[in-house]
Amino acid sequence: MNNIPNIDLNLLKLFAVLYQTGSVTQTASILHMSQSACSHALTRLRLRLKDELFVRENNRMLATDYANRLAADVLPAFEAITLGLQGAKRFDPQQVERLTLAATDYTAWCLKPFLSDILSRFTNLSIQIIQLEERIPVQALKDLKLDLVCGFEHQQETLEGLAQLNCFEGHYVTLSCKTRSLPNQLSLQTFLSKSHVLISPWNETRGIVDRILAQSRKSRHIVVGTPHMLNAPALIKDTDWLITLPARYAEHIANEYQLSIHMPPINVPNYRVKLYWHKTRQRDPKLQWFVSQFCQFYGLHHELE
């Protein structure tokens, strides 16, 4: 970058237009300049480049040999700049080949209806889902290692550098094995007397339930911790253990493992499933398209700035 010549690019723009028109009058009109200002600018460029650049003949400005050689480099460069600024290459969603999304097993499960829909309509598209190893991998989004993250949170937060879209909100329920015949309404005493399976996507030793209990100086016994929510209900089958997880998945899986659904005896805050992407890609056509498709499918309203 240090080798870029110190020259007013507006002068090169004038050169490019004048080379193509061969007329100071037309050049002034195209650039919205007076003819006098155009002539003065040409004089400045001649002095800067130490060449006459154009010679007047029969009311035409004929390029010098140096100007012809300069134009061979300058004109394509300005054409590329113009195309880039105008976004001349129209975005074609059918040409999108790959998109990388980080998710937990649960958030990926939540996206299944949308992914099935979009992949059936855009057959050239391939979506790679990567295990979400930290709650929000900001650096990976910034470094373009990820296009999007589908994660979740329990309280609204603003993350520097990230844009986000609220997908849906859900509540938690507690599951128990039906053969243990626990009452529908669990008491806190019963809840705390049982062993629990902890779902910890990022290998935490405590979850949202433990944090709520800690506010009242209470705790529960964790017998198993697992990062895999989709398989976790199988762990409590034929046991006295309990597991607290999103109702959306509990209702889907309870009958398969003969489990009963209970409301937790504590006030567990709702979770929000969200899409995250880096703000440096707000105008990335691929992400704009994908997020708009997502919003249309789920009836959400969101505008990328």
Question: What tags apply to this protein structure?
Answer:
D-Maltodextrin-Binding Protein, domain 2, Arc Repressor Mutant, subunit A, 3 domains, 305 residues, 37% helix, DNA-binding transcription factor activity
Q: Can you offer a commentary on this structure?
A:
There is one protein chain. By secondary structure, this protein is α/β, with parallel strands linked by helices. It has eleven helices and twelve strands. It folds into three domains: about 10-85, Winged helix-like DNA-binding domain superfamily/Winged helix DNA-binding domain (Arc Repressor Mutant, subunit A); about 100-170 and about 270-300, 3-Layer(aba) Sandwich (D-Maltodextrin-Binding Protein, domain 2); about 170-270, 3-Layer(aba) Sandwich (D-Maltodextrin-Binding Protein, domain 2). A hairpin with a 2-residue loop joins strand 1 (about 55) and strand 2 (about 60-65). Strands 4-3-5-12-6 form a five-stranded mixed β-sheet. A five-stranded mixed β-sheet has the order 9-8-10-7-11.
